[in-house]
Amino acid sequence: MRIVIVGGGVVGSSLAEHLLRDGHTLALIEADAELCRTLSGKHDIQVITGNGSSPRLLQEAGIDGAELVIAVTPEDEINMVVCNIAQQHQVRQRIARLRDREYRWNNPMFDLAGIGVTDVIHPEKVMVDHILQYIETPHALQSANFEDGSVLLRAYKIRDNMEMAGKTPREIRVEIAPDVVLFAAIVRNGVGMIPDGNTRIEGGDIVYSLFPRTSLDRFMKLVGQEKKKSRKIIVTGDSYALMEISRAFQGSNNKEIIVDPDREQAERIAAMFDGIDVIHGDCTDVEVLRDLNIESASFFVAVSNEADYNIMSALLAKAEGAHEVIATSSATRHDSLFKSIGIDHVINPRLTAAREILEVIARGHIGAVVQFSNVDIEAVRFTVDAGSEIAGLKIKQVAKKLKKGSIIGVIVRQSGMVIPDGETEVLADDHLIVITHHKNLPNVARLFKVRG
Q1: Other Cβ atoms closer than 10 A to 29
Q2: Domain-embedded: residue 444
Q3: How much of the chain, in percent, has pLDDT values that exceed 70?
């Protein structure tokens, strides 16, 4: 498929990397000349320097033969213009990254489809959804949701006093029935492996588990996290994300406190949402944190547009006793450093937006891709095409076609989530979550596509 990407920042570059890996032909337009030079050296794609909303440059990028245009510049207006031009050139799918809440599908004053947008990604909403995953499953090391949140993937470090420690997946499966959990991968002493039913889980292991939302409560008991009726959550920032989190918390059983350095925005949020305490203050001030009784907070979340504020306030909150802290940052270089000094989760809004766009593109063949820790194991969601070579085969037959180091973890179909055995038949339109090594991805992807 020929794809034109407009915007070469973290989102555009991440998309290019993943889409190239799946064999697509790409052209990318970026206004920053220095960034263009970097992208040309990093990716084997056509890179054009200039304004992405220029009809001439879009023509040069091959918009006439493109099946997909993705507009992910920082400017909403440019992204919408790109989609409008793409519509005039009969491009089938046109994705825009839009930050402003006014540009929503349900706004009667503005018709996104009418100006050419087929799919919208709101980066702050996507980022907030990811933050909420960690709040829902405290102390998870890594988190991802599949199938609109009906299938969950979580990573936990195993302690000796956890229920699953010292047991095999086969033993645990019998104990928790009818609930279902698949142990997809184990990282032990820095080495990743895909376990079988007889692999014994040891204290110190990092275990990646896949399970349906209906098994969430039972899974949390397995990892020693008893469900609480209410948690105290403190959120600070001055961005669109603060509004999104306030909406998400509306009506929940948790005690939420919003701390906004911007007085006017604090007043707006207080007027808009009931049941949420809103305070004007700066969480890089230790006295503000102490006045909030930060030591009793289950979560401290920093979502300002300024990464320095987020990192500093999260570090101070952790030092003052907050149980778990989350900070957002658009920088990618120092994530490991931030975690090593006490920040539990660093979420990059640009990378989460890129993953969401990949999910939108993948409604056909390939969906969310989640890399496990720093090891060469990934969970990839594929959709089975009716014309593929595995449609109608049993799992044991599919296994022979997969290279060693790849397993079909779960099947998601209308009837729910299935952990397959050798006799389970793969049906057209099934969603399969495959656990595999990165080097195997091209071979795995080929099995799901139309033959020839």
Answers
A1: 28
A2: yes
A3: 95
